[in-house]
Structures are given as structure tokens and as C-alpha cells.
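Review session, final week

We close the course with one last complete record, chosen because it touches almost every idea we covered. It is Gcv operon activator, a protein from Roseibium aggregatum with 292 residues. Go through it on your own first, then we will talk.
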Amino acid sequence: MSVLPNLVWLRSFEAVSRLGGFTAAGAELGLTQAAVSTHISALETQLGHQLFERTTRKLELTASGRAYLPSVRKALQDLAVSTDSLFGNRTAGSVTIRAPISETVLIIAPALAEFQKTHPELDIRLLSAIWADTALETGTDIEIRLGTGNWPGVHAEPLGPEKIVPVCHPALAERLKEPADLMDLPHIHILGFDDHWPRFFEAQSLTQPSGHSGVTVDTSLAAVELAAAGGGVALLLGKVAARLAGSGRLTTPLDPGLPSMRTHYLLNRDNSSPRKPAVQRVETWLRDLFAA
């Protein structure tokens, strides 16, 4: 972190690049032209590269400046979006939900439009997470998390039992008549769910083949896209698989599946404190959504 330039200098660099001059950038940032010029000079000194070509008529980015600008602009934009999402003005009707990225994309987001029609007064922020932290994120009202429910410092409400089921492209499903047929197909593995395939084969009294071909991905969402493209068979949570089967992209040829060691939980910070009505309405909706 010690090699990062001063954030104020980077903000001045982005503004000058976008507005084309020190004076215009200073007016936007509430600084003098001289202060902006000093920021750019200090940034160039630290980087050891000239970022602008200065002439009497115009100011232009150098090759180094043009190469650096996209990264700086994206970093500032990401920081602004994250800050507003977590700490922005929050009204009585604002509710921030955080959920695993697969559940966000495949379960919550598709149902959110209909919920908004009946609750237009709510301002909902839906954030995605790949890996769950131990503590709740600051600014998060509700979190959906997958696990065993033993997270300290939070109240975890189970959203019903889960199971794992094989899913694949409908064309590939024609080759699956019984669990043993899975031995001859590519397996899609998901990091964090390494026990799924061994448990599935054990439950079917089958021995998992060694050296079997397959692909490992880091999210269930990636596994869904790979399976939908005909890349193999994935073991997904039943609530996710059911919605995918309804869309026709994937099918579950060997239901009813296997009980999962993990289930979905609805988390909040303190179950003893009354939550605002908007949060309670969204919690009720999420309970119904995950129970469907």
C-alpha cells in the first residue's frame, strides 16, 4: 500500500484528463488552478513519468498518461459506488441486501422486479459476495449466507433444508438414466463445495473415479454457465437448480438429489432490536422466496 499515490493527486489527474485543463479541474474540485498543477507535478514526480504534454495552447495526455487513466478512473468510480452503496443517504425505505453472487443472480434478482411492483416505496440495494465474511458488512441490513449457521455475533435464521442435485444441458441429460451414468461424463467442481461429488457417489454406493476429466470453477454461477453450454454435469443447490430447470437452460435428470450439509440463512445483526418496517417487509419476502 505504501507505493500508492496520494488519492487527492489521482482525483486531480482524472479531473484534468476529463476536463482538459487545470482551471476547469480546479473549479470542479473546489481548488485553485495552482493547487491542481501542484498535484499533477507531485504525481508525476512520484511515478517518474510525465503524464501531460504542456504547451501554450493546450494540455494533452502523454502515452504514459493515456495508459494510466483507465485504471485510475475505474478505481475512483469503484470507490464512489462502494461508498454510496454502504454509507450513502439511507432513508426509512432503504434496505441493503447482501447475498452470494449465485443466489443474487439466479434467485433474488429475477424475482426482485415483481416485488418492486408491489413495494415501489422501497429503495433496495442488492450487493453480491463471492466469499462470505465472518461479520456482517457495515451498511448491510440483511444478508443471505450459505453455511452451517455458526457465525458469531449475528442472528442466523435458517431458510429451510437444502439438497444438492445434478444439473446439465437437456441434450446431455438424455445420456443419464441412472446415477452410474455420471461416471462417463465430465464433472464440474466448485471450489468450497469439494465434498459434493464424493458424498454424491458415496450415497449412490458408487466409487468416485480417479483421474476423471472435469473443470473446477470458483462460483456456482460459473458452473451454471459451463453446464448450460454442455460442458459437463454440476452439483448445485436445489433452490438454484429448480429455478434453472424452470427456465429450460438446464435440467435435473436425477432428482430428488442428496441432503446438503449447508443451507441458506437469513442474517441480521441483533435479533433483540426491532428492525425498521422496510427491512421486515424484505425479510418476509426473502423467506417466501427461498421457501418456494
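Two points worth writing down before the exam:
The chain has three domains: 7-87, 94-160+263-291, 163-259.
The radius of gyration is 25 Å.
Good luck, everyone.
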